[in-house]
Design a protein that fits this description.
- Helix 9 (about 285-295) crosses helix 11.
- The chain is about 30% helix and about 15% strand.
- The chain contains 17 helices and 20 strands.
- The strands form four sheets. Strands 1-2-5-4-13 form a five-stranded antiparallel sheet. It has a five-stranded antiparallel sheet with strand order 3-14-15-12-11.
- With about 575 residues, the chain is an alpha+beta fold.
Length: about 575
């Protein structure tokens, strides 16, 4: 299908491609291996297929050396990620996730940067029960990982409730319509009987095909002026266009992505580019056809160069748009004007429409657990028992207690105060605009700490912030344990990418509204150098900034980093 003058890169298919093709539409030997009572782990082939079912096999890296010395196998465990389009969860769903984390997991929940739940520490013998209990509250983990479209993000803005609800419904439709059609998930985890096909009636994936996509695919939907979903980091971004308080459609942006590989100039973070406009009713068609372009022309030989952003770059925007229009049978309209102002959250109580209230709670690193003074897990559990509205997981790893009636606001506020959950409002603006990936000890790709270290680093940066009168100045700071970009480090005004234990590459200069990538500032530095550099930089910012100037704009204006520096090896298509 498609234009015969363009083609996918040459080269033999990667091992993953053969595995997918021979998997019987994501079944493989997963069912048999998961049922084996003698092994705490599954094979690497099954682990690759398991990702399509929303889970990764991991091990506790804190215990690796100790267990090796004891001649024991790694402490195998599984991470499970839920599909939760737009991050909207009922109180019943929250309570079930809380219960599962206590019963089967490591007693914590992780709110991810893609607006969903992750649970860690689940043992193989408990995986099926976990999946079935998730299903009991009408949730699933289908396509939360793997080479398919993943959890669809949507603006969590509590100020535009009716508009949010409408956009959320479109996000949910995207998520549902773009799911794989195989019944493998239901057979393996939910005991659905397999319907054996005759040779003449082969099961098919009408959109994905037998080998699915070359790599993962991400979609986000934003409502200006808030860019909390970091729409330009998405493979496909939809930007809501509102006229006279009515949603008239979406601008379409393609080719974003944060991941890269250290030392590999063929990989780079990139921001998506706006290519046109469509009506709400057209967004599923546009998404399906863009996904098929990536299916047909993405790099299936080199997985490091297989994301859609590289396909966009290789084909070029004009060729890609022509191919998209050919597949659609119609053309996107001209993009419409829009303006983003920020990509963060707004904390505390905010009044919405129809007399409802919303409380945005800061959850550092997205980790829902009880700390010494702030009992997040217990507090939210108690709130969920009386809350009549819903919860919204934000793209910044925080939580909105949404649609609270005036009648229940006092009761919920008392619970917030009882468990210390209002204390987050007193943190520095820098901390409230921080984000970190899971990293060690569970992520197998992590080269350095992130979630466990960033709060301690911010403790020390806050001293510098306070000395310069910047405690209430919003600056985004993001840290990842490796270059894959799960915490969207390349869109942080201050960004850190782990190189090795205690060492990071430091990036500066991203746009506060999420529209400009950061630039490489220093490589392979430790805490002492980080603090020394920030002391000078933040001092200059406090003294030399212009009125209303954000830190990312300042470091570019005064030449600390150059706007055209190719330090992150990204390509600008404009």
């Amino acid at each position: 299908m498609g234009n015969k003058s363009i083609k996918a890169p040459d080269g033999p298919p990667s091992i993953n491609e053969k595995l997918k093709r021979e998997s019987q539409f994501l079944r493989g030997t997963l069912k048999e291996e998961m049922a084996d009572p003698l092994q705490a782990c599954i094979s690497e082939n099954s682990n690759q297929l398991l990702k399509f079912h929303g889970s990764y096999q991991q091990d506790d890296r804190d215990l690796r050396n100790q267990r090796q010395k004891q001649k024991l196998e790694p402490a195998y465990q599984f991470m499970i990620r839920v599909r939760l389009p737009g991050g909207v969860a009922t109180t019943e769903q929250w309570l079930m996730m809380d219960e599962i984390a206590e019963k089967y997991g490591n007693h914590t929940l992780k709110l991810t940067t893609r607006q969903t739940f992750q649970m860690h520490g689940i043992l193989k013998w408990n995986m099926k029960e976990t999946m079935q209990e998730i299903n009991q509250v009408l949730l699933d983990t289908i396509a939360a990982c793997g080479d398919v479209n993943r959890n669809v993000m949507s603006n969590a803005n509590p100020f535009q409730s009716e508009l949010h609800a409408e956009v959320y419904e479109w996000s949910k439709k995207l998520s549902d319509d773009l799911l794989p059609k195989t019944r493998a998930y239901h057979e393996i985890w939910l005991d659905e009987e397999k319907v054996f096909s005759s040779p003449e009636v082969e099961e098919v994936e009408p959109m994905y095909g037998p080998v699915y996509l070359p790599r993962k695919f991400k979609i986000g939907v934003a409502i200006p002026p808030s860019n909390d979903v970091d729409v330009f980091s998405q493979d496909l971004g939809y930007i809501a266009i509102v006229e006279d308080d009515k949603l008239i459609g979406f601008n379409v942006a393609i080719g974003g992505g944060m991941g890269m590989t250290h030392g590999d100039k063929e990989t780079y973070p990139q921001i998506a580019k706006v290519i046109g406009f469509c009506t709400p009713e057209q967004i599923v068609d546009v998404a399906e056809k863009i996904i098929t372009v990536q299916r047909d022309y993405g790099n299936r030989s080199n997985r490091k160069n297989a994301r859609f952003k590289y396909t966009v770059d290789r084909l070029g925007l004009p060729t890609l748009k022509e191919e998209l229009h050919n597949r659609l049978g119609w053309e996107l309209a001209e993009a419409k004007p829009f303006k983003f102002e920020h990509n963060g959250d707004r904390y505390g109580w905010v009044k919405g429409i129809k007399g409802k209230w919303n409380f945005t709670l800061f959850v550092e690193g997205g980790r829902v657990k009880d700390f010494e003074n702030i009992k997040i897990k217990t507090g939210i559990r108690e709130i969920a028992k009386v809350h009549k509205g819903d919860f919204r997981l934000t793209p910044n790893q925080n939580l909105i207690i949404a649609n609270v009636s005036s009648h229940h606001k006092k009761q919920i506020n008392e619970l917030l105060e009882k468990y210390g959950l209002t204390d987050g409002q007193h943190f520095s603006a820098l901390r409230r605009n921080s984000m970190a990936c899971v990293a060690l000890p569970t992520c197998g790709l992590s080269m350095a700490e992130a979630e466990r270290y960033l709060p301690t680093l911010i403790d020390k940066i806050e001293t510098i912030v306070d000395e310069n009168g910047l405690r209430d100045e919003e600056i985004t700071i993001r840290m990842t344990g490796c270059p894959n970009g799960c915490a969207r480090h390349a869109l942080g005004e201050i960004g850190f990418i782990g190189k090795s234990l205690g060492k990071y590459n430091m990036y500066l200069g991203a746009g506060f509204d999420g529209s400009r990538l950061s630039k490489l500032y220093l490589e392979n530095i430790g805490e002492e150098e980080i603090l020394s550099e920030l002391k000078g930089l933040l001092s200059r910012y406090a003294k030399e900034r212009e009125e209303g100037e954000h830190f990312g704009d300042f470091v570019i204006r005064v030449g600390i980093v150059n706007e055209t520096t190719d330090g992150t090896n990204f390509h600008d298509l404009q």
